[in-house]
Write a structure and sequence with these properties.
Helicase, Ruva Protein, domain 3, alpha+beta, globular, 9 helices, 5-stranded mixed barrel, 43% helix, OB fold (Dihydrolipoamide Acetyltransferase, E2P), single chain, RuvA_2-like, DNA polymerase, domain 1, 198 residues
């Protein structure tokens, strides 16, 4: 397995980054929060997790080892695949997830796209004894405040090279589309469309 990737950032897209390692471009699927920390031309080191399927090999990249651990652990719960696991790490910091599971907080888990009431209850039941207590690690971009998606979309835009002011205006422009359970990926795409028209 590939434990981590270190190389020059060759490209950053809406959902992935390409790191050049020894003349080979490796595509890593990443959350908006991780992508926001990457700059093309700069060197980056990302912990990784490889998901092997019959028809594909997918490499996921993370901000740190704690996020990687959570990504791999939540997939041991019934019905949680890599896409939902990545959505969990995009919406909730590792400690926020530990706190939600420890306190039976179904509402926090259902903020994650793809997790409904029953799915959240199943995750809590299956992981409660294995996920551990909050470790007091870093905060997660966008978790503080009433609308976590705003910071995630803003960071995603800045990470893709847009200016801070432009990113703020684009976030405001797509705010009416957010609704009660915003999809960060869709809002990020909508914000990019807004910026490309401007």
């Amino acid at each position: 397995m590939i434990a981590f990737v270190r190389g020059q950032v060759a490209a950053v897209t809406l959902s992935s980054a390409v790191l050049e390692v020894g003349g080979v471009g490796l595509e890593l699927m990443c959350t908006p929060g991780t992508l926001a920390t990457l700059r093309p031309g700069h060197t980056a080191t990302l912990p990784t997790s490889m998901v092997v399927r019959e028809d594909s090999l997918t490499l996921f990249g993370f901000l740190d080892d704690d996020e990687k651990t959570i990504f791999e652990l939540v997939q041991t719960a019934s019905g949680v695949g890599p896409k939902v696991a990545q959505a969990i790490t995009a919406v909730l910091a590792p400690d926020d997830l530990r706190t939600a599971i420890a306190s039976d907080d179904v509402k926090t888990l259902t903020r994650v796209p793809g997790i409904g009431q029953k799915g959240a209850q199943r995750i809590i039941l299956e992981l409660k004894d294995r996920i551990g207590a909050p470790v007091g690690a870093r905060g997660h971009a966008g978790v503080v405040g009433s609308a976590p998606w705003r910071d995630q979309v803003h960071q995603g835009l800045v990470g893709l090279g847009w200016g801070v002011r432009d990113a703020e205006q684009a976030v405001e422009a797509v705010a009416p589309q957010a609704g009660d359970s915003p999809d960060v990926g869709l809002l990020l795409r909508a914000a990019l469309q807004t910026l490309s028209k401007a």
